[in-house]
Amino acid sequence: MRHWLVRVTVNACKDALRSPWRRRMVPLDDCREPVFNTPEHQNLYAEVMALPAKYRLPLYLYYYEGYTAAEVGELLGLGPSTVRTRLARAREKLKAQLREE
User: Fold this and answer.
1) pTM of whole model > 0.70?
2) Could you tell me the residue range of the domain that residue 45 belongs to?
3) Which residue ranges does the record assign to the HTH luxR-type domain (predicted)?
4) What are phi and psi of 23, to 5 degrees?
């Protein structure tokens, strides 16, 4: 059920991007950020959101939603090895960003 719901949401988002009404929608950048208990979690969230979408989406689905690499691949239309590669690269980029601070 959860897999179906995510897949429907992804397809609805793709449809919204193709829609001429898209310009009338509020961009996600204008939405409020979630509130975290510690500043470390807030900083980590900011760093994750600063990653490019091709790394941010698999990272979110894998770590926050608990999907396997194969399930993330199905959701995003990618192979499991591609998902694992993007996860590894996202972790490397995140590590480099956190070291800079």
Assistant:
1) no
2) 40-101
3) 66-93
4) -70, -15
